[in-house]
Amino acid sequence: MSLNWSMILAIGVGGFIGSIARAYAVHFTNKYFPIEFPLGILFVNLVGSFLAGVLFAYFSNYPLSVNLKAFLTTGFLGALTTYSTFAIESYLLLGTSIYIAIANITLNLVGTILAAGSGFKLMHFFLK
Predict the structure, then answer these.
(1) Which end of the chain is more exposed for a tag (fewer CB within 10 A), N or C?
(2) Is 78 annotated as a binding residue?
(3) Residue 123: partners with Cβ closer than 8 Å, 6 or more residues away
(4) pLDDT tens digit string along 19-39?
(5) pLDDT digits over 98-109, tens only?
(6) What number of CA atoms fall less than 13 Å from residue 33's CA on the CB side?
(7) What is the Rg, in whole angstroms, of the alpha carbon atoms belonging to the chain?
(8) Which residues of 94-124 are buried (b: 16+ CB within 10 A; e: fewer)?
(9) Pairwise CA distance, residues 75 & 17, whole Å
(10) Measured at the alpha carbon of residue 60, what is the angle toward residues 56 and 63, in degrees to the nearest 5?
(11) 73 assigned binding-site residue
């Protein structure tokens, strides 16, 4: 796969939409569930991982253009999920509560892997 201007544009537009979706999802999750735990970031990481599983299962059964794949995965999902935010929040939580930090790290790492696998399996189920 080589980067060309149409792919770069697809990634950029996907990233623009994904980052806005992340901001809204985190804002509303934290607004309606105001707890010390970074629930908003966990939510977008779980949803994004689930969607990655769904999309990769779909891609394995139906060919899509490389630009559409780049828009959805590298662009949208890359901006929606927030592992850099997860990393700094986990580090900062280590300074305040080791238990909340460990819960955050465990739920994000294990949860996103389970969410991605669930999305993949669910999509394969529906594609049969």
Answers:
(1) C
(2) yes
(3) 53, 54, 55, 57, 58
(4) 999 999 999 999 999 998 999
(5) 999 999 999 999
(6) 11
(7) 16
(8) eeeeeebbeebbebbeebbeebbeebbeebe
(9) 8
(10) 105
(11) no
